[in-house]
Amino acid sequence: MSPWVRRLLITNIVMFGLQFFIPSVTYWLELVPAELLVRPWTLITYMFLHDPHNITHILFNMYSLYLFGPRVEERLTSRNFIWLYLLAGIGGGLLSFITPNIAIIGASGAIMGLIVAYAMYWPRDRLLFWGIVPMEMWMLCVLFVLFDLVGFGTNIAHFAHLGGAATGYLYLKVMEIRAPVRAWKKKVGPTRSPVIGGIGNGDPLKRWRDIRLDDLHPINRDEVVRLLKKAQQFGTRSLTNEERATLDRFAGTA
């Protein structure tokens, strides 16, 4: 359980309890887009509310947060993770202006931002759709977006979902543009092995340093940069088997 995922889970559960025992909480914190100018706080607070009469609403969102959030937070760092979450929720609220008089509650817009992030970083991970059908993450993400585009399901804030997905995607693209890949490549320097330190021609670090960063997709490039930095600072043994396999794959040795 990562730090912000834990905090968000606790906050959402506490707010759900308050809604159940104090119904007026929902009225004061829900988002009605047409009333945003007089109730500006609701653009944030709405994403911490759920339907107190439908426990599946909060269960699905919190399970998704628990399932996808920790790995995304570890990948992005906690600071970028919470910005992604909040901005995706805000983006979902803003797109809901398409239906300005309908009250919106739920973390689904923010969760869609996380799902998009997970699908971008680990598109080939497999999950069971509806607990039955095995499906790769990129396909599951596309399917969720299609459901919202066609309005599949009743009493669902489809525009909030779409706004969250779009905002999450744009946020990650901005991160890609700002990623200091070239600076890191210069910092790594020559690919020759040092004489001292036990790194010879057969050492994996040398092979990994030879990875052509400019030829990689920006998302994969960021991951390789992160792993190279970790190996450089803490040694190759600090990498997990999965991380070593990732570097080997891009080095053409897997």
Q: Topology, please?
A:
Blueprint: H1 3-21, H2 24-29, H3 42-45, H4 55-76, H5 78-95, H6 108-121, E1 126-129, E2 133-136, H7 137-150, H8 158-178, H9 181-188, H10 204-209, H11 218-234, H12 241-251
Helix pairs in contact: 1-4, 4-5, 4-6, 5-6, 5-8, 6-7, 6-8, 7-8
Structure characterization notes:
This protein has 12 helices and 2 strands; from the N terminus they run H-H-H-H-H-H-E-E-H-H-H-H-H-H. The chain is mainly α. It has a two-stranded antiparallel ribbon. Helix 5 packs across helix 6 (108-121) and helix 6 (108-121) packs antiparallel against helix 7. The protein starts with a helix and ends with a helix. The relative contact order is 0.09.
Question: Looking at the structure, what is the overall shape?
Answer: elongated
Q: Write out the strand line-up for the largest beta sheet, numbering strands in chain order.
A: 1-2
Helix percent reads 55-70%
Number of helical regions: 12
User: CATH H level of the largest domain: which superfamily?
Assistant: Rhomboid-like
Order of helices and strands: HHHHHHEEHHHHHH
Rounded average pLDDT: 83
Number of E-state strands? 2
State the CATH class of the largest domain: Mainly Alpha
Strand composition percent? under 5%
Radius of gyration: 21 Å
For the record, give the distance between the C-alpha atoms at the N and C termini, rounded to a whole number: 31 Å
Low-confidence blocks of residues: 181-202
The CATH topology label of the largest domain is Rhomboid-like fold
